[in-house]
Structure prediction request, 192 residues.
Amino acid sequence: RIVDNWPGSKKAMWSRMNLAKSHIALGNYSAADTEVAALVANHSDSPQITEMVYQVAEENRNHDRHAKSVELHQYILDNWPDSDDIYIMSCHRNLALSHLALGNNSAADVEVATLLANYSNHPLIAEVLYPIADNYAKYGRNSESLELHQRIVDNWPGSKKAMWSRMNLAKSHIALGNYSAADTEVAALVAN
Prediction:
């Protein structure tokens, strides 16, 4: 009713986002896409539009609709490039994750390179990169996982994810057959 009676209101914007997310959860993808189109058409100038589209993009990714996730995250980057850094970094991260799920490895690597080139000094970069490093391993790209976890440990040792990256370094070394390197990582993990 809010969307029908007050289509341009702030509450309608939130309602459209929630309708889109609900439609995705229920498998009504066409209806979800219609709500997203209306959300953008009616609220593209709102300061919250990036967050709205981001949440819908994430809902798509969480329901394995990776192509739609890529489309919406890229739409954010193309249309609101001056949004808060955390949304921009998260879009690049989620693009990398969806590209990996779709088997578009080179596109995922481009997103990682973009993050490293543009946000290495951001205080949350390790937290943004960590799930990509994990997903590299998930999709059998153990060398890339090893490299990204090592970068997190080396460049952001005080971050919340450094300890977890060190643990995953050990796992990546085991997957690659580098058992002595795995033992070294476990020893460093225990020592720190």
Notes: Residues 70 and 95 are 6 Å apart (CA to CA). The two ends are 56 Å apart (CA to CA). The longest helix spans residues 85-102.
